[in-house]
């Protein structure tokens, strides 16, 4: 399993394959996990989710951005998506990766791009979640979030349970809307827990600590054991349902998503779209290599 995961993580970082993927379209099974390559197809998917009582957090996919031109193009795509959310009146917010809007180009340039994005979103009463990337970008991400919070309150970020520092980071952000995840990148033992059981244990600890605070939290997991424990904890401790939501990825455990929404829990689906689908898709295969079956079935059916 470890070798398979490492293999797909390595593929996700291959810029040549990423460039080629833009020409292939949504193949290799990616259409099961990516809601189209353009705003119109993505918006159709979001409306279908809304009809089931499910909200969306939209990710306009983009990776390997090392020039100002690419970062500005990505920023404009995000602004266009915000306009579409507003115009269509859907229940949705946005997730944004800082490397997509210039973090690897220049810190100040990235901050300026994010200020423009968050300002437009604030004008439309749309929340912006800053996705957490690998450990090498973590502190810069928190620094940009801190700068944005001085002007806006419609912005938050992600805490990854496998990192040793996450409990401290979460405490520093106790008044900020957060998404809690286990963590999807391969990090060294010096900075992160390595065993699944240790990660699960810390994840539940962070969730329970957080749910006792009067601030909104997104619990992003497909793990039914974790979900059931959260449901038990919430009931036992009389935690209001409007204090949190469950989140899952588009194309994963769709029936469970609908069931949780029917049970009365706030539910949001992470909806990725765009031509830059390749790196995202490879990381999903790394997390759950059984998803390779989808890719193989897709190839066989063509």
Automatic annotation (TrEMBL):
Pathway: Amino-acid degradation; L-proline degradation into L-glutamate; L-glutamate from L-proline: step 1/2. It catalyses: L-proline + a quinone = (S)-1-pyrroline-5-carboxylate + a quinol + H(+). Its cofactor is FAD. Residues 43-289 form the Proline dehydrogenase domain. Pfam families: Pro_dh (PF01619). This is proline dehydrogenase. Its EC number is 1.5.5.2. Keywords: FAD, Flavoprotein, Nucleotide-binding, Oxidoreductase, Proline metabolism.
